[in-house]
Amino acid sequence: MNNILKTKRLSIFDIKIIGIILMFIDHIHQMFVPFGIPNWVDWFGRPVATLFFFVSVVGFSHTKSKKRYMLRLYISMILMSFLTFFLEKIVHYDQVVLINNIFRDLFIGTLMMAGIDLITSGKKHKNVLNILCGFLLILLPFISSILVSIALSNPTILQNPSIMTFIMAFMPAIFLAENGIMVLLIPLLYIFRNNRNIQILIIIIAALFYLFMGSIQWIMIFAIIPIMMYNGQKGKGMKYFFYIFYPAHIVLLYLISAFLYNH
């Protein structure tokens, strides 16, 4: 293993490709559960979120404009929410529920990373306002969760799926995140972005937590292999490929599954 890690080096492009392939396999499992696809196929997808969280940390650290980076993810989060809502409305394929929106997870992560930057800058320049704004950004996903919960406790809203979708689409609530509290890996990996060993340790601890809880999410531990092989290079550019591929492959697999099930 040590020899492999020394001789084989991966760029961010390579890690993205690995993540995309594993994600595609994972979504094949999700979409074809009604056909009895074996549960072990789902194992391939367990390292995916960790890989994309790591990629997001690297991307956010090196992007020329963090504001544009965040805006891209926020718009993608909103569009993905409406896409899955209308797709389910049109197709009426109740056997598969579309909860997919990795853009929400990644946007929540950028909020927290931006918060960390503000706190760091505030401490350096003794700017209390920056520090307070930084903490506010970090807490925003939790505040959003409370606001969404309050809104959904209203019977009128709860009985109107369109209003519910509209509210949830715009709110970066952590309880709506596809990967739940696992999103907290992003700020942790960002804090230690200059120490790969601690990043690996954080992932291992998270994996052991899920193993202790009896969740197959512990398989995320295998994400450390490509992360350990990261060579610090961006590699080939594919800035917008993921933004297109992610929704496109989900729609395609969902429609194929619905068609086969109904015919």
Q: How would you describe what is shown here?
A:
With 263 residues, the protein is mainly alpha-helical. The chain has one domain. The mean pLDDT is 94. This is TraX protein. InterPro entries: TraX. Keywords: Membrane, Transmembrane, Transmembrane helix. Pfam families: TraX.
Global Rg = 19 Å
Low-confidence stretches: none
Helix content: 55-70%
Shape: globular
Largest sheet: none
Number of helices in the DSSP assignment: 12
What is the overall pLDDT average?
Answer: 94
> Care to count the β-strands?
0
Termini, distance in Å? 48 Å
Note the beta-strand portion.
under 5%
| Broad structural category | mainly alpha
Number of domains: 1
Compressed to H and E, one letter per element, the order equals HHHHHHHHHHHH
Lay out the secondary structure:
Blueprint: H1 2-7, H2 12-31, H3 48-62, H4 66-91, H5 102-125, H6 128-152, H7 155-158, H8 161-170, H9 185-191, H10 196-212, H11 224-228, H12 241-262
Short note summarizing the structure:
The protein is an all-alpha fold and 263 residues long. It contains twelve helices and no strands.
